[in-house]
Amino acid sequence: MNRCISCVWDDFSIPLKRYIKKRVSNEQDCDDILQEIFIKIHNNIESLENDNKIHGWIYKITRNTIIDFYRRNDKNHLSIKLPENLGNFKEEELSNNAEIASCLKVMVDNLPDIYKEAIILTEFQNMTQKELSEKTGISISGAKSRVQRARKMLKRMLLECCQLDMDRRGNIIDYKHKSSECKYC
Hints:
- The chain is mainly alpha-helical.
- Helix content is 59%, strand content 6%.
- A two-stranded antiparallel ribbon has the order 1-2.
- Helix 2 crosses helix 3 (54-72) and helix 6 packs across helix 7 (140-161).
- The chain is globular.
- Keywords: Sigma factor, Transcription, Transcription regulation.
């Protein structure tokens, strides 16, 4: 790896701080998140095989760290609304997966509340389906059904809106909006 951590700090600290500030309102939380990001970068920079991918790699760490921050601070309270600007990316930061992810956020917001709750708790807050059943007071099979139905609804919305080309690992390599009037993207 040709990059030293101080070079990464010099190149990314200011843009990352700006990026975080748009998504987290408290200044101390922004500083804590930035510090956590650079610890992760420092601990994992040797695993980055291609210097050309450092930009996307760092912004992925940043986005995931912000999501972790919201998860940690909302354990006992279900926030049906995800932070509005969490999926927003600058054009140079945008990848196909990231853009589709921002569309999915809007799609999740458009699900009926019981399905929205099931997806947010299981997919974004890493709750098991058993924990979902206990929290909502329904059977385990009922919880599984809700999650499955929510996933099917999201898939249907996505496929109505976009034509996706995926690699064999399921990453989106290209997509095209089917209509310019898609209400999600």
